[in-house]
Amino acid sequence: MAVISTEKDTEALNFRLVAEFDAGVERVWRIWEDPRQLERWWGPPTWPATFDSLEFVPGGRAAYYMTGPDGEKARGWWRITGIEAPHRLTFDDGFADENGEPVAEMGETHAVVTLEDLGGRTRMTMTTAFDSLEQLNQMVEMGMEEGLKLALGQVDVLLAEDASV
């Protein structure tokens, strides 16, 4: 499995996940910038994602939904706050209603993704910051850690397909 560690830091109000992949940094970067590749891994296998839009530029927005096993849709949004290709991506993330509008009572989180070259392999560190301990605990109770692990477990297959071409 790609995920090598997770850590919930209640003092710093963040959740950090570290994963490593058998692919170069530029290739791993593409799984973030290409909406069709994002759809292949963002969300657990039982909740696949569909990106209605992705403006992969600073200030750009993304709108997506994940479809559950019973057809239920969970919508979300991103606001891209920084891009330093191919090593660093920052974005705000939140839940959305059926019209794609942010659900204010759920708050928003702030993600920092860094990609490090390990001599042809890539270490990805994803740190999600929360506005409060209650928000952090709520997201963990909703299955954030397991969902991210399952989602990132799909990346190896995506990268392996590309390597065999």
TrEMBL record:
It comes from Arthrobacter burdickii. Transmembrane segments: none annotated. InterPro entries: ASHA1/2-like_C, START-like_dom_sf. It comes from the Bacteria. Belongs to the AHA1 family. Residues 23-159 form the Activator of Hsp90 ATPase homologue 1/2-like C-terminal domain. This is SRPBCC domain-containing protein.
